[in-house]
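#random but structural
TW: two for the price of one
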Amino acid sequence: MGFVDYVTQNLGSRKKKKRKPNQKVEIKVKMDCDGCERKVKNAVSSIKGVKSVEVDRKQSKVTAVGYAEPNKVLKKVQSTGKRAEFWPYVPYNLVAYPYVAQAYDKKAPAGYVKNAAQAFPLAQAPDERLTVMFSDENPNACSVM
C-alpha cells in the first residue's frame, strides 16, 4: 500500500452514516371517520424516514414503511390524541393453538389472533409419545405401519 492509497482511503473519505434497515411498523389505532384517518396519516407521513403510509380503518391498522424507529412512529400517532399500540395480532394460520386462553380475542380482525405465548403439549406426555411413535415424519417410527 503506497502513500497515495493511504491518503485516499483514510483522509479523503468522509465518515459514512450507517443507514437504519428498512422496516415495516404496524400500529393499532381506533379511527372513526375520514378526519381521524387523515390526521393520523399526515402525522405518520411527516416523520423523517417514512417512505409510505397505509391506513386500514376497518381493521384499525396503520402501516408505515421506511427507515423510521418504531417507537418514534408510535409516539407520533399518540400525539394526535388517539390511543395507539403496536399491532398485537398475527395471522390465524401461523399459530399452533389459536384458541388458547390468551390468544383468542373477539376484537381481533377476521383471520387474526392475538400474539400470545402458545400452550404447546409436553413432549414427555405419554399420549404425545404414542402418537409420535407411529408418525410418518418420525424416522425411528414403527415400520409395521
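TW: number two ↓
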Amino acid sequence: MYLISGLTLRPLNLSSDTITLISYPGELFLRTLKLMVLPFIISCLIIGAANLDISKNGNVAVRTIVYFVLTSVFNVCLGLTLGLLVHPGSPDLRLTNTTSFSGPKKMNVMDGFLDMGKNLLPENLFQATIQQTLTEYETVMSLNNTKTLKKVVKYKDGTNTLGIIFFCLIFGTVLGTMGERKKPVLNFFTVTYEVMQKILTGVIWFTPIGVASVICGKIITLADLTTTLVQLSLFIVTTVGGFLFYQLIVIQIIYFVIVKKSPWPYYVSLGPALATAFATASKSASLPITFKVLDEKLKMNPKITKFVLPIGTINMDGSALYLSVALLFLAQINNLQLGIGEIFTIGLACTAASMSSAAIPSAAIVLVVMLCSVINIPTEDVSLLFAVDWLVDRFRTTNNLIGDCYTVAIVQHLSKEELEQVTHK
C-alpha cells in the first residue's frame, strides 16, 4: 500500500516543499525511535545480565554468541554461492554510471579485527555514544617525493554500540553478584525500562503514518526509478532472493528442527517489528517495538530478550549476505578473476565486517567501500550500489532483525533447564 502511494504521487511532479512535508512525519517518527535506542540498550542489558546472573548461566551467553557467529558465516557462504552462480555483475554497468566517491580508501582483515577490539574497549564511555574508532590509510609524501600510504586511527561519527554493549554486560554481570546491595541500582534501570515502554506505547499509535511517510518520500525523490531498477535488477534479484531464501526457508527450518514447533505463527507475530524495520531501514530504530512484540505478544522470557536483543548489533545476517554479494558484483563488473584464496579472503573479511556494522540505514555501503581494498576493487564503482540501496537496505534490515528474534526463541528453548532453575530459586 505504501509503495503504491509513492508510485502514484511520482508523476505529479510535486515541489520540494511538498515532498519535504510528506516525508516530515516519517522523519519525526524515525528520530523518536532512534532517541529511545540508547536508553533501551543500556537498561535492557544491565537488567538482563544482572537478573540472568551470567556467572551461573554462562551457557546462555555462549549459545547466543555461537549462534550469531554460525548464522553470519552461513549467510556469507550463501551470498558467495549466489554471487558466483547468478553472476550479477556486468562490465557494461560501469561505463557511464559511476561517479567518484569519497570515503575510507583501504581496509584489510587485520585492521577490521583490531578496530573491533578498540571499539569493544572505548577510551571514554561518553565519547562512545557519538563516535567509533576507525583505521584509515592516508596518502603522504615521503622525503624522496614518492607517495605512500600511512595507517591512521581516527574517530568517525556514529554510536559505538559495541563498546556500550560490552561495558553494560560487564557492569550488569558484576552487579548480579552483589546480592542485596544490587537492588537500588537494579530498580533504577528497571524503572527506566518501564518508562521507555510507556513512551513507546504512545509512539506506536503513529506507526502507520510514520511508515507511509518514510516509504512515500523515498520513492518520490528518486530521480529515475525505472532506469535504476533495470540497470541493477540482477543485483537486486540476487540479494533480495538470498534474503527471502534465508528468511522464509532456512531460518524456519532451523526453528522447526530445534524448537520442534511450526515456525509460522511465530513469524507472523513479528509483523509489526518487521514492518518498522522495513520502513526505517534500521534495526536499532525498530528495537523498542521488537521488545514489545516479544515480551507482550509472544510472551518470551524477559531475561532472554533483554540479553539477546541488545547484543544483536553483532548479529547482522542480512549485512553478511549483502557484503559478500556486493564485493563479487563489483569484482565482476571490473572483470577481476577470483581464485579460491580471494574468495576465502572475501568471506573472512565480510564475516568480520558484518559483526561490526552499525545498525543504521545504509551502514553496509560504508563497509563495502572499506572492503574494496581486500581484492583491490576501485571504490568509485560503489556509487552503482547507492542507486538501489534504498530498496535493498530494507530487505537487508528485516533479515538482520529476524535473525535476532529467532535467536531469542532458539536460545530460550536450549536454555529451558537453566531458566527453570533460576525461576524456581
